[in-house]
Design goal:
Beta Polymerase, domain 2; alpha+beta
Length: 133
């Protein structure tokens, strides 16, 4: 599916399917679909990380997702976060989505912050824009 110059794949990578329970996979797929259809032009990359990405999560574990966006505007991040809240309720999961703009991401890289290190080490790319930054 094409979305204003973005390639959008609506199937999760095979290795990821093993790390998530069925309802979690469905939740992540719908989350991605809605996020990309509503805010796709702002999104640069979506990454699963944490215990689910490492294959160590259980039914009580949250689903950690980092969304790299083209804006540091907290209002946009808050709007996008509403999708995660709706998915939480619909699928009875806990999506912990982190919206990171370019300035914040640069600081995370420079300081080698723990969150950045974890995503770099364990992250599984769910989606990436084909647009050049």
């Amino acid at each position: 599916m094409k979305l204003k110059g973005l390639e959008m794949s609506m199937g999760l990578k095979k290795g990821l399917l093993e790390a998530l329970e069925d309802r979690e996979r469905q939740a992540v797929e719908e989350y991605l679909q809605r996020l990309l259809s509503e805010y796709g032009s702002h999104i640069r990359e979506v990454i699963l990380f944490g215990s689910k990405a490492r294959g160590e999560g259980d039914s009580e574990s949250d689903i950690d997702i980092m969304v790299l966006v083209d804006s540091d505007d907290w209002r946009l991040h808050k709007e996008m976060g509403n999708i995660g809240a709706e998915i939480d309720l619909k699928y009875d999961v806990v999506l912990m989505d982190f919206f990171i703009g370019p300035k914040r991401f640069q600081v995370m890289q420079e300081l080698k912050e723990p969150l950045y290190q974890e995503v770099k080490r364990d992250g599984i790319e769910l989606w990436k824009s084909t647009l050049k930054s």
